Structure formats: structure tokens, C-alpha cells
Amino acid sequence: MRPLSVSPRRASAAAVVLALVGGAAACGPEDSSAKAGNTGTPQKGGTLTVLNQAAQEDFDPARLYTSGGGNVPSLVFRTLTTRNRENGAAGSKVVADLATNTGEPSENATVWTYHLKDGLKYEDGTAITSADIKYGIERSFAAELSGGAPYLRDWLIGGTDYQGPYKDKGGLDSIVTPDAKTIVFHLNKPEGEFPYLATQTSFAPVPQAKDTGTKYENHPISSGPYKVQKNENDGEHIVLVRNTYWSAKTDAERKAYPDKIDVQSGLDAAVINQRLTTGSGKDAAAVTTDTNLTAAELAKIIGDKALASRVGTGHFGYTDYIAFNPKVKPFDNPKVREAISYAINRTTVVNALGGSSLAEPATTYLPEQASFGYLAYDAFPAGKTGNAAKAKALLKEAGYPNGLTITLTHDLTKNDEQGPEVATAVQEALKAAGITVKLDGQEHSAFGEKIHSIKTEPGIFLTGWGADWPSGGPFLAPIFDGRQIVKDGWNFNNAQLDDASVNKEIDEINKLTDLTAAAERWGALDKKIGEQALTVPLVHPVYKRLYGKDIKNVVISDWTGVLDISQVSVK
């Protein structure tokens, strides 16, 4: 996944793909307090209100990520596979959805076969077929429907040149549907994590006869437990009601307790948290999927037992870090990068983000979750407050006995994980090691354009990365695979690392269909890359969100990091 378009902390001091996010150990009971949210048997009925900042724009499966929009899309769009809807680490597993299993690999994981369950229907009662899934994927290649996950363009044979069904009527030969319930994917390289990819909304079925192109988002044809009754102002107000043709017998993951789900967006973060705190009227049965509590709000809530019991804690694979461009002096010198790694004071960075309740110090690039392959290591142990003496010694070895002056580029958005507060904390820490840091603050859009273009990329800057699914693959490959360096476009391999041994190991891990074995290899690769001091991991964010007093059956997985509205009951 690209860095969050609405940063984790910005979207409420929160986030959207982060609505997928996390950083410590997402749990329901301890964090969300079992008493308020998990007591009593969930009952069907009622209306669930979702209060968000960011609108659920482009409500079309071709233009979305499954995780995007805080779980709302997955209420309407079922896919071949989906995430396991359980608390914490158990929720990091991929499970079957429309398909009977998570996929059958063959030919060294270059061919994946899926069989559909019996009894699958759209909101109009017609049967869902494998041809509909093929068509849904093909339309995601159309330029006018861009915005969704890019992987299939790279993974499918012929995907690079395919322009979608509106221009290329022949379709993709690498997707074969031998019968109405079977679909086979032919890949140009081994991809053991294909079952994860099959959770993304581009795998949702779309009946070709009902496709209205760019207008499809206004009323997409539902394959999930809810259908769209209303979509106003491009997702600012979406109302979902029951799809009477959905059957729980075919869907073990979505509970679909409420009769209606009312998604209201475009709201101010403080207003959302105040409404959830008060919990009057319809707000008693409300949640948010993109708005965190600030440190000040959290401090007030902790003293109120009833309110504290309604705080959910989420963790998603996301890391905030300092990035180096070794093509720019003095960062071409490994000892300079190592000196900065030793000098960093993670305690002040954590404090800048609101304290340990909202951020946890990171010494590894991979998040601290088993599914990513997390391997505990600290290549440049700086302790809690930095090791200035070691940093100075390394600077001397690097030819800077009197220190040096550098410029740190950061986002100007306040209370952002790449914002001025964190930049100032880094500045103060490096000062103790004899490094003078000048701050180069950029407006948000200009910041993104500057740091992700090879032509303008600074020597050192703040950034972050989150994974599209809970594995080391989508975390390490986009950032460190030399073949993913983009010279004329947005580039995320900031170090411009093109190490043949790293590239080869990525390929070897991708061949593995044993995801546990793959995770171990991702962790080892993280350590190998980390020792090169190409980044300085700073923190893994922690997300705290309130929910209404009538909300029951709270589930927060490590996959999304937010309360899963497919599990919520309001009665």
C-alpha cells in the first residue's frame, strides 16, 4: 500500500488505510473493554451509524482496496478470499469467502485455481458466476476506473499491456473460467501470497450486463449482506440496507446484525469524538472507522470508567521511519547513516505523537506481528533516549569530527506522523550528537511529490509505510526490491536499493505457499536490510477509537486495526 493518503494521525489523529492500522496488539477486551462492547448476546436489528472524516469515495470494487474505507466495502463486495474476522493476531489469517478454500496452487505457485461455493447470489437474486469475477477483475484495468490495487497488472500474464474490457473486448487470457464455478489464474512468476491478494475488492464479481462504467459506484450490484440504498456526494453519505438474497450459510465471516448501516462522512474529528462520548440518540449506536482519540481526549476519558470501557485499540502493519537517499551526500557514507541511527531518541518521538498509548518505539522495519515475520533486532542500539557518544564516534570515523549540518524534509501538517512535531524531536536528538538539523517543511501534497520522485528526493526525510495485507511481502518488496524503482513516477524504494541478493531472496520467498515459513524468511530479510542503515525505524502507531454505548460484539483484528462493522450488533 502506498503511504496513507489520509495519514493515520491526520485522519483523526487517525487514519484510513490504517483504519487499517496498528501498532501493538490489537485486542478487543483489554483495549475495548469487554464490559461495554462485548456483554450480552448480539441480536439482529436496528441501525448502525458510522461517523467518519473521510468520505467513502469511488464506491466501485475496481477502485478500492478491500481494507479501504474502514470495512464498509466488504459489506457490499464479497471476494474470493477475505480476512478472518477475529480479534488480534487470529484476524491476520486469510480465509475463504466466495471460494471454497483459499486457493489451490500448482506449477510452482504460478497457477491458482478457485472453485465457487453453491448458492451465491446477487442482490437481484441472479447467480454469481466465475465469469463475473473474471469480468470484475478485467474492468479494474480500465484507465477510467484506476485507483485500486496494482498487483494484478504485474502478476498476471499479459497484465502489463491489458487496457480493460472497454477497449480490449478479448479479455485477459491469463484468467480462465472453464465452467460457471471455476476460475484459474496464470501468473508470470510464483506468488505464494496470492490468497492475500484475492481479498482485495478487484476480485469482487461484477455482472457485465449491469456494468455502468464510471457510474457503477452510484449503485454497485451487491454480493454481500448489504446493498446500497443511497450514495450521496461521492460517498459522503452512504446508506446500506439488507441484501435479502445474501445467505449466512455461504458466508461464515460477516455477521450482519444491523438492519441498516448509515455512513456519515465529512465530519470534524473533534465533533466525531464528542458525539461518541455523549452517545445521545442515534449516536449511542455509532462507531468510527477513521478517527482516533487525541492524547488530550484520551487523558480525559481514562478517568471515566464507563467511557474508558468504550475505547478500542487497533494495530495494523504500519511503520513510521526516517528514510535516507544514499545518492545524496553525506548519506552515501554508511557511517553517517549509522550515526543518525544511534543518535535518535525514540522517547521524544513517541511523546511528540501523544505518548506510549498512541505510539510504540520501533527498532525493526517490520511491525511487531508474527504474520509479518517480525524478528526482534536492534542493529544500532540507541536505548530509550539515543546514544550520542556512539554517534559522535561514528561521525569522526566518517570524516566529520566536528559534526555536520543536514536538512530534514517533513510534512507541515500538524499532529502528523511525518509532521513538525516529530521533525523537531529528531532535530533535538541529533543536536546532542553534534548534528545540526535544518527543517524543510512542505505542504502535504508537495511533500509527497518531492519525496517520491527520484529527481527531487531529499537526502533525509520522514515517511511511513503500511502493508496491503499482513505479511512481510507487501512491506519489504515495494521499498527494497530494486526492480520496483520507478524512475519516471512515484517511487517508494527511497534508498534506490538494487541488491541482487535481496531481489533473489524476495523471489525465493514468493515461491512459498507455506505462509508461516515465508514469514520467517521475511523477518530474516528485514534484519539483513536493516543492518545497512537505509532507514531509521521510529514508531509503530497505536490507534484508539471510541464506540457508542449500545455497540456490542467488538472485534478488532491485526489485519485492519479498526472495529469490524461486519461483526457489530446494536441490540
Rg over alpha carbons: 23 Å
Please indicate the percent range of residues in DSSP E strands (runs of 2 or more): 15-25%
CATH class of the domain at 318-541: Alpha Beta
Helix content: 10-25%
Task: Give the structural class.
Answer: alpha+beta
Q: What's the total number of strands?
A: 19
Tell me about the biggest sheet?
A: 5 strands, mixed
User: Number of helix segments?
Assistant: 16
Mean pLDDT: 91
- The CATH topology of the domain at 318-541: Dipeptide-binding Protein, domain 3
Strands of the widest sheet, in order across it, are 8-9-10-1-11
End-to-end gap: 36 Å
The CATH H-level superfamily of the domain at 318-541 is: Dipeptide-binding Protein, Domain 3
Q: Note the overall shape.
A: globular
Low-confidence stretches: 2-36
Report the CATH architecture of the domain at 318-541. Answer: Roll
Helix and strand topology:
Elements: H1 29-32, H2 34-37, E1 47-51, E2 81-83, E3 94-96, E4 104-106, E5 111-115, H3 130-139, H4 151-155, E6 175-179, E7 182-186, H5 194-197, E8 226-232, E9 237-242, E10 260-264, H6 269-278, E11 286-287, H7 295-302, H8 305-308, E12 311-314, E13 318-324, H9 334-343, H10 346-352, E14 359-361, H11 388-397, E15 404-411, H12 420-431, E16 435-442, H13 444-451, E17 460-466, H14 473-480, H15 500-510, H16 515-530, E18 535-541, E19 543-546
Parallel strand pairs: 1-10, 1-11, 15-16
Antiparallel strand pairs: 2-3, 4-5, 5-7, 6-7, 8-9, 9-10, 12-19, 13-17, 13-18, 14-18
Helix pairs in contact: 9-11, 10-12, 15-16
